[in-house]
Design goal:
The protein folds into two domains: 119 residues, no CATH class; 151 residues, no CATH class. The radius of gyration is 19 Å and the shape is globular. Helix content is 40%, strand content 5%. The chain is mostly helical and 300 residues long. It is built from eleven helices and five strands, in the order E-H-H-E-H-H-H-H-H-H-H-H-E-H-E-E. The strands form two sheets. Strands 3-5-4 form a three-stranded antiparallel β-sheet, with helices on both faces. Helix 4 packs across helix 10, helix 5 packs across helix 6 and helix 6 crosses helix 10.
Length: 300
Amino acid sequence: MRYWEIKENIPDIDELDPRGKGQMGMPADISKADSNDLDATLTLGPPYPPEQMDGVRKMQDQLIKIGYSVGRTGVDGKYGPRTARGVEAFKKDYNETGNGTEMTGTALDKLAKVESGAIPKVSKPSETGNPKPFGGKELKALDFGGEKNIEAKKIAEEFLGREMKEQEWNALVRATVAEASPDSKEQAAVMAVILNRANSSKYPDGIMGVLTQKNQFQAVTGTPANRSPSRNFSRPTSKQVASVVDAVMNHLSKSNKTWLNFTANNPKAYGAGTNIDFMYAMRQSPGAKVIGGTVFGNIA
């Protein structure tokens, strides 16, 4: 039900440089590629140049929206092998020529037009061979409850330091429902850890990348024994969603902005594929705090 760790910060092997040099990119203020810039080109890494990460994020988001998986980490700004598979499938379906992994300004412009509807989408996008986030199941829109949800989303965006896409907010609320008990302060602290990770260079870039990182959030990605998301993530009730929205409004802004770890504080919560030793390590970590049924803090 809760977060657990087997080994921290080990990147998915498919996202590593074939020569064994994985790199974590950092956000940049300047984007190398914009869909309206026909001279811009996005190229496969590693390395992952900071100046092209905004352009890659935009491209990844558009590819996902029209049906091409870019891997478990989703929109992370890194043009790695899995994103390249999505690019190659898109270029095949829309008759884009040239280097299979290179996205020229012309190709990016076509992608933007397909995403906007100016160019009709193919009826069945080619398979990329990439694993799909959340067990391959599409996240349906949640009934957040009108204006209250809008206010809660703004509070979460202020905590994060940027606006969130609806898909990010949807996944964030689901993960909070699934990883926390109904305790309101615990829910806010769980969401805070996820947002803190999205802002940390130690973890994948962005909320979707953080949530889908392998062996990090049991309720989202499952365990080695069962890779399916939990029911509370896949099918949260309207009451559970409303509880998280209230927690955000009442407690998120006061939550700790340095915590990067949490885990269940009950040994009975640890089953096959989980690591109970992490619970004991968390309890003994400097500054650790128990909120509800979860212990929060940082593991060096």
